[in-house]
Amino acid sequence: MASESSSISPPSSESVVYYKEKLKSSLPRYLLQDTNIKKSKTYKPAIYKSTRRNRQKYTQRIEEDLESQLIVYHKIYEAQDLQQFPVELVQPRENATIFSLARNEDLYGMLKTIRNFEDRFNHNYHYDWIFANNEPFTENFKALVSNMCSGTVKFIVIPKPMWDYPDFIDQTKAAESRERMGRKGVKYGELESYRHMCRFFSGLFFQMDEFKKYKYVWRVEPDVQFHCNMNYDPFKIMRENDKVYGFTMAPLEIHTTVMTLWDSTLEYMRTFPERIAANNNFAFLTDDRGKSFNMCHFWSNFEIADMDFYRSDEYMHFFNFLDKKGGIYYERWGDAPIHSIGVSILLPYSKLQYFGNTGYYHAPNLQCDGSDRMFLDNQCICDPKRDFTWSDGSCIPKFFEIHGSTLQRPEYVPENVKYLPIHNKNLRRLAMKFRGVGAWQEEFDFPYEPDKEDAKDVSEIN
Ligand SMILES: Nc1nc2c(ncn2[C@@H]2O[C@H](COP(=O)(O)OP(=O)(O)O)[C@@H](O)[C@H]2O)c(=O)[nH]1
Ligand SMILES: [Mg+2]
Q1: What does the mean pLDDT of the chain come to?
Q2: Mean pLDDT score, 133-141
Q3: Mean per-residue pLDDT for 117-122?
Q4: Measured between alpha carbons, how far is 348 from 219 in angstroms, rounded to an integer?
Q5: Is residue 18 very low, low, confident or very high in pLDDT (cuts 50, 70, 90)?
Q6: d(Cα 331, Cα 354) in Å, to the nearest integer?
Q7: Stronger pLDDT, 37 or 93, i.e. the higher one
Q8: 36-50, 141-155, 366-380, 391-405 — which is least confidently predicted?
């Protein structure tokens, strides 16, 4: 396989300056529509070209929106404003949407995030933004949020079956487990809603009608921050490089929430070896050749994904298998480990994309890596000393170590930064002893990239 670099090079500063000057002189004006779009004669999408074909298309879109009984707010850009933009600034966009799940009480955290996300990225693209809630959003939420977004905004009430127990779950058992985990102080252990949320993200959201027309989604949570500009379109990176899953950070899962997730994963791999991808990312998930889960997972509060994969038989078969095990409710399996395991065993690792230098922050972790040049070009305001990505508790170094033969880690990362198997005291001791040499990894025959034959071996390991 050809060598590929996973770091993103921002566009030249000349072009950034050019964009900025253009933006200053031609900021788009917009109108905030009220919900009664049927009466509106001025409806136009964010990127509007006044041709007969477009008019027909968008009239049809209004009708579809009304049919689906959604409350839809649209920002209206006047065509002449857009024409002043450099073409690259607004077009072409990728077939993608931003997505936030939020409660009404998340309003101010959401506004803070939107303001920041628009300033750092989306004012260049005006990507659509979908907001979903298990309850109706208040008028106040919709008005303030719409006012902050630069693209078309949609508010969705999640259909009840997508935020409820499936038939096969024993709700008494689930309640007992919540009570027990709550008593033990497991984070979110007592929360029913948290489990519905995890299931919704794991296997459901992309099936909602509103998502069907989009290929890519970028998940953004209330209260997260971006401390660097994104002077490029990550969706474009995904498409041009045929990537399926984009991530920033990879911390360790709380092991008490996934007590049997690994057993179920191995059972899946044993039962359906033909479904396991060659050259996959399995080795990322384990430090002992598959015996145990090392708790490494991509932190899904930042996630850029190709939803065609989520909607595929490959992923849905895997999700349904795990769903039936009941661990989402009887334990507290999160969407982050479920997505991470899914993309790691069902896809070649070359489909996974690390996004560096975003300055992304979700409490308590910060991604603040990058070269000096990137810090300048992207106007980062985070402290690199607080970077979690390449620190001891992070699994990102492991991702690059195990795929080192074909995947170059970013040049700016010092050579002495190594993955430490945090979750396992014995392995950690071994790694500390041989730190910098990588001998502990040889002990376990790394890099380990199981192909279909290897997947069968997993049964022998266990
Ligand atoms: N609508 C709705 N959103 C929720 C609920 N619980 C969590 N969320 C959203 O789900 C995402 C993850 O929840 P969060 O509390 O941040 O969990 P954490 O990131 O794992 O600590 C955030 O976007 C929340 O706004 C809920 O009960 N209803
Ligand atoms: Mg969160």
Answers
A1: 81
A2: 96
A3: 96
A4: 22
A5: very low
A6: 29
A7: 93
A8: 36-50
Q: Which among 193, 100, 201, 200 has a CA at the least distance from the CA of 145?
A: 100
For residue 203, give the DSSP letter. Answer: I
Tell whether ligand 1 has an atom less than 6 A from the beta carbon of residue 222.
Answer: yes
CATH number at residue 396: 3.90.550.10
Query: Contact 76/33 with Cβ under 8 angstroms?
Result: yes
Range of the domain at 369: 1-26+85-92+158-462
User: How many domains is the chain partitioned into structurally?
Assistant: 1
Mutational pocket test of ligand 1: of 99, 101, 297, the residue with most ligand atoms within 8 Å of the beta carbon: 101
pLDDT in tens, 46-66: 343 445 555 455 444 444 443
For residue range 270-307, what is the model confidence (pLDDT) as tens digits?
999 999 999 999 999 998 888 889 999 999 999 999 99
b/e per residue 426-456 (b: at least 16 CB within 10 A): ebbebbeeeeeeeebbeebebebbbeeebbe
Among residues 118, 210, 303, 401, which one is catalytic?
A: 303
Q: Is residue 34 part of a domain?
A: no
> At 371, which amino acid appears?
S
CB distance 221 to ligand 1 below 6 Å: yes
Q: Which of 159, 196, 158 is nearest to 174 (CA)?
A: 196
Mean pLDDT on 237-243? 96
Contacts with 32 (C-beta within 8 Å, 6 or more apart), sequence order: 73, 75, 143, 146, 147
In a domain, 39, yes or no: no
Residue 33 domain-assigned? Answer: no
Which tokens in the block code for residue 54? Answer: 């477009």
State if residue 291 touches ligand 1 by the CB under 6 angstroms criterion: no
Indicate whether 225 pLDDT > 60: yes
Residue 44 token pair: 């136009």
CB 315 within 8 A of CB 342: yes
3 state SS of 77: strand
- Give me the residues paired with residue 354 across strands: 247
Active site residue 118: no
Joined together, the tokens standing for residue 166 give: 């499936």
Ligand 2 centroid to 301 CA: how many Å? Answer: 6
CA of 413 to the centre of ligand 2 (A): 27
Q: Is any ligand 1 atom within 6 A of the Cβ of residue 305? A: no
Looking at the domain assignment, is residue 43 inside a domain? Answer: no
